Amino acid sequence: MQRAITLFEHETAPFDWSDRHLIQLEQLRTTVGSDVLRATTRHGQRVLQATQYVGIVRMGRETIQILPKIYRSDTSADPQSRERAATRNLLHMLVYAGQIDIREQELAALMQRDTDWFETLTRIFATHLAKEWQRGPTRSYQVLEDDLTILKGTWRISQQIRRPDRRHMFAVAYDEFTIDNQLNRILRYVVECLWRQTRDHNNRRMLGNLRQWMESVTLLPAVRALDAPPELITRLNQRYKPLLNLARLFLGVGGFQLAMGDADHFTLVFDMNLLFEAFIAGFIGRHRAHVLPSALQDCNLLVQTRGATRYLARIEGTGVFLLKPDLAFQQGTTFVLLLDTKYKTLDTRVRNLGVSQADVYQMFAYAQRYDAAKVLLLYPQHETMTVPLRRIFQLEGTTDRQIVVATLNIRVDLAKKDDRACLIRELYETLYQEIAPWPQQ
């Protein structure tokens, strides 16, 4: 009998773990590079504790779903409603982060189904891929090498000489406009993996249809996220970009290992630190007309300072220690503001708010190398805080360099227009304060 457990990040739940579970959790820690779940005890009872990772961990008959706390908590709601609200918000965050592309109406329909968020993501992928495949699979020219009875394309004479036993055949290389290309091979690999892992009847049926439709595409033995670079998307196959993004999500850290052939042990998790960073950048980018004060409206928004990265030092003329602020506001050649996100909890009981010394050193390096007067360090507002927090750290030895620590209340329902408007307004006010010395509207 299958058993499902839902945890919110950093929560604990009773779980009678065994040595087998400990081995699997250690393997997961090695793969991810950090603890995803911790097996421990509390008051003499064995429990599992979630960390900052969210996602799905399947260990034999047990499935552990970890959801983010970033949503408006309603303690009076039943557990199923709370889980559905958290799942909905998680999917909205993935939309803003550019990981998935789905309309509000489609998302609302998906939320009517009583499934975990992995099955929801699987359904999004299968539905969209089926729709695009029926419109027409993406094709591209691929160089094929073969032995033919006719001369076609380029005659590979050196190869022909090495095969005297096949002198009645021509060793040729030619271009073919085919669906058996790298993008489709990645999509087919993900289809195969999802078909093996899904436990939802409708998902399995849709994925089964896709397996048949894609039979002429080579099934690769293994694919990693690195094998699916964004550069696979061109002007001719732009409509497949959301599907490639979602495939990369499935193939990420702790993702599929098709060669193992083990459907009883499966992990799909990602770090909330990275999601928070991508969400903030995506939200500002999508709502920039309302989020940015007038003084910042004509700025270029550089995510991780793409196109303007700098190094902290050089060795023999080569840059080392790459600096990548999460979001840079560039006006001409000037960086008027740098923004970095930290998915951590601040401590209002101490003067420095518990900000990591390493984080401050990092922000100081940003300010110096990018010649920026202000660096904004943005944290999520903790549930115990009633108002946003803002504190200025004036850098010693300077008169115009500041690190500003602020919080943002993202415990809102992103599905609601009014809640999104509140987040837009709060971001506007936060950014307005950082450029306050400038003439304002």
Structure summarized in a few sentences:
This protein is α+β, with helices and mostly antiparallel strands and 441 residues long. Among the domains are: 1-97 and 258-270, no CATH class; 140-178, no CATH class; 287-434.
Structure description:
With 441 residues, the protein is α+β, with helices and mostly antiparallel strands. Among the domains are: 110 residues, no CATH class; 39 residues, no CATH class; 148 residues. 34% of the residues lie in helices and 25% in strands. Strand 5 and strand 6 form a beta hairpin. The protein starts with a strand and ends in a 7-residue tail after the last helix.
Radius of gyration: 26 Å
SSE succession: EEHEEEEHHHEEHEHHHEHHEEEEEHEEEH
Output the structural class. alpha+beta
Which percent bin holds the helix content?
A: 25-40%
Terminal residue distance? 63 Å
- Oligomer, anyone? single chain
Layout of strands and helices, then pairs:
Blueprint: E1 3-8, E2 12-14, H1 19-32, E3 37-42, E4 45-50, E5 53-59, E6 62-67, H2 79-96, H3 104-110, H4 117-135, E7 140-148, E8 154-155, H5 157-161, E9 170-178, H6 182-197, H7 201-213, H8 241-250, E10 265-271, H9 272-286, H10 288-291, E11 300-303, E12 310-315, E13 318-323, E14 327-331, E15 334-341, H11 357-369, E16 374-380, E17 390-394, E18 402-408, H12 417-434
Parallel strand pairs: 1-6, 15-16, 16-18
Antiparallel strand pairs: 2-4, 3-4, 5-6, 5-10, 7-9, 8-9, 11-14, 12-13, 14-15, 17-18
